[in-house]
Amino acid sequence: MGDDPFDRNFDPPVGRAEQLAPGLRRLVAPNASPMTFRGTNTYLLGEAEIAVIDPGPADPVHLAALRAAVGDMRRISHILVTHSHLDHSPMAAPLARECDAPVLALGDSAAGRSSRMTRLAAKFSLGGGEGVDAAFAPTRNLRDGEVVATGEWALTALATPGHFGNHLCFAWGETGGVFSGDHVMSWATTLVSPPDGDLGAFMRSLKKMGARRQDRHYFPGHGAVLQDPHGMIAHQTQHRQMRESQILAALASGAATPRALAARIYTEVAPALIPAAARNVFAHLLDLTERNLVAAQPQLAFDAEFSLIS
Could you tell me which CATH number the domain at 246-308 has? Predict the structure, then answer.
């Protein structure tokens, strides 16, 4: 895989807005964890009319910090959500009520899910659902490629399903900056947990964003600004290809469950993260099942045994 591309030295102030660029500030929520790193990055774009990008978890401390960062001389004109996980979207509704601003996203927490994944979730025990903001309901749904703009800024919505069905990235005008949510981050690879996550969609979204050569830096949902997004996209792509090869090699020794495969393959992660790793393995197994390379017994499920199709 080559050199480790990740920046794990990110140590931002929590609860205080930092200037990242003219007209752009970052406010980190107080929700650090093994899955959220230092906390969720909430971005404030604009000077007079502010776009809040990923307002964050339902936390009164974070809401107070947001109020203080906006101040009395500015107003929130738009609230944009990259995806509806509980660390990104729950603050949208109370903030919208308070400032009378629309909440913009691809759709609710079922939006963007592929017909295949919808069908599998209805028929089989796929598990998943961790961290989903089931109550999320945007004021208006955005289309892929739609532009939201004021006199100060313009954001283009880019549909990037994979980590979550309703995931959007937002390209910031002609600056070369992209608010990448959890699609591509600087501190870790991205979790894909079916049925909310979809590995095939994730790989297609990586390819889509990799083709945008005009993008020079990403502002992710967690971690530091990513200065080499195309290098990270290439790393993520290679990483997923490596995991697939590891899974196929492990299955050559016999049938196994996603949990057993994760314990054998993810030797570099802490034991507490093996359940999340097993969800990633399951995402790969669903993709391999669709491609008729593996089969599940007795039926497709998270606790099934998977084996190679000879």
Answer: 1.10.10
What's the Cα-to-Cα distance from 213 to each of 46, 176, 181, rounded to whole Å? 25, 9, 19
- Which residue type is seen at 15? G
**Domain 18-240, CATH among 3.90.550.10, 3.40.50.920, 3.40.50.150, 3.60.15.10:** 3.60.15.10
Instruction: Give all strands (DSSP E) within the chain, no chain letters.
Output: 18-21, 24-28, 41-45, 49-53, 75-80, 103-105, 140-141, 147-149, 154-159, 168-172, 177-181, 217-220, 294-297, 305-308
Per-residue pLDDT tens digits for 155-212 = 999 999 999 999 999 999 999 999 999 999 999 999 999 999 999 999 999 999 999 9
Give the residue extent of every domain in the chain.
Answer: 18-240, 246-308
